[in-house]
Design goal:
Blueprint (H helix, E strand, L loop, with lengths): L24 E3 L5 E4 L9 E2 L6 E2 L4 E4 L8 E2 L4 E10 L5 E9 L19 H10 L12 H4 L10 E6 L8 H8 L1 H12 L6 E7 L3 H10 L6 E6 L8 H9 L14 E5 H13 L5 E7 L7 E6 L4 H7 L9 E4 L6 E3 L12 E5 L17 H5 L6 H10 L2 H6 L10 H5 L6 H18 L1
Parallel strand pairs: 1-14, 9-10, 9-12, 10-11, 13-17
Antiparallel strand pairs: 2-8, 3-5, 4-7, 5-6, 7-8, 13-14, 15-16, 15-17
Helix pairs in contact: 1-7, 4-7, 10-13
Bound molecules: iron/sulfur cluster (2 copies).
Length: about 450
Amino acid sequence: MAILSFKGGVHPFEGKSLSKERPIEDYIPKGEIVIPLSQHIGALAVPVVKVGDRVLVNQKIGELSGFISSNIHSSVSGIVKKIEPRLVTAGNKVLSVVIENDNLYEECTVSDFRKPEEMTAEDKLELIKEAGVVGMGGAGFPAHVKLSPKNKDDIDYIIVNGAECEPYLTSDYRRMMEQPEYLVEGLKLVLSMFKKAKGIIAIEDNKLDAAKKLKELVKNETDIEVKVVYTKYPQGGERALIYAVTRRKVNSTMLPADVNCIVHNVDTIFSIRKAIVEKKPLIDRIVTVTGDAINQPQNYRVRIGTNMAELVDAAGGFKNQPEKIISGGPMMGTAIYDLNMPITKGSSSILCLTKDEVRASEPGNCINCGRCVSVCPGRVVPARLAIFAEQGDKEAFEKNYGMECCECGCCSYICPAKRNLTQSIKSMRKDILADRRKK
Ligand code: SF4
Ligand code: SF4
């Protein structure tokens, strides 16, 4: 049988062997904790604590403020020192709650003892919303919104994205290896919220050991299937993954729910389980600290708000001077120039490289080789789109299907002239989306 995949894509250096075999280690933060009130797509949460308050672990400190928004909780116990804008990895400042950690880790008491089987789908959805669960693959879309499509009864598949196609990242892999039963439990809970949905756990074929474990666990589950997909970037992109496992096509004007699918990241499913079973909010995540500049690459369970520099120190610091530090993976992550920033719900990795593998030299002129076209999963012509973007020609950009770009970075990666294709296309898409919002 052909291995499931999509058209286009690239095979960058994997780099996963640096941290793949490193079991998850708990990291206990030392310094102050900075918790941004926006770690999600949508409206900023509104602070519900004030300077001087003592907060406990799991206590709500930010209240969602709209349909697309998310609650924010404290990951430590301590005193609220400041509520002020702080720098985040996107390069902007976001209103944040700064907490002086008292290192006691005193938790809020849980008073809800209902078992999942005693709950309705609405009860479960409310717990997910209350727990501030968002997409943890980087997008940060609130999970309770994703799980409330208009056509709820038509949803056919809940797809767990275990592809982890970005090079170097191993956080999802470690979760699947170390706590596969929680992943299956979380998926079953999500399935119980839908009338007829079946579960698919999609894993790239460079993680066959994780696939084997999960297959064994679901062998008696008639509604869950583990599907092995071809190792290729961006296999874990939502559209690419849906196509690979269901052959259904999603374009830029559609949501996965339009083809009766919902996709959730591995860590998101873990957080959903925790919200429903333990009644606890999202206050931590797995972060891979890795790259050839890092002394001891490692996967950590990290409390949200932990300082990135502390985490790099925990991994033995730098063994070589990094040329590039990225929050996330090398293909879609964000280059950062200051480690004095907090880990957020979307921080999958701190990647420290001695060489910029995606862009190692100055951009040159296009030589019309067509490679960018052949790797583009959006089936567009990146070279042409980048020219329209550089010329600011929005009409031509849209006519040439520029909005179908998923910003995967494959075109920039493959371009022998090292043109900044993705960057140009990305900023044009951003402008067009901003125009559309104004209308
Ligand atoms: S144009 Fe967009 S979708 Fe196509 S390869 Fe470039 S970044 Fe990826
Ligand atoms: S890959 Fe680069 S050089 Fe080749 S056609 Fe595309 S933009 Fe031009």
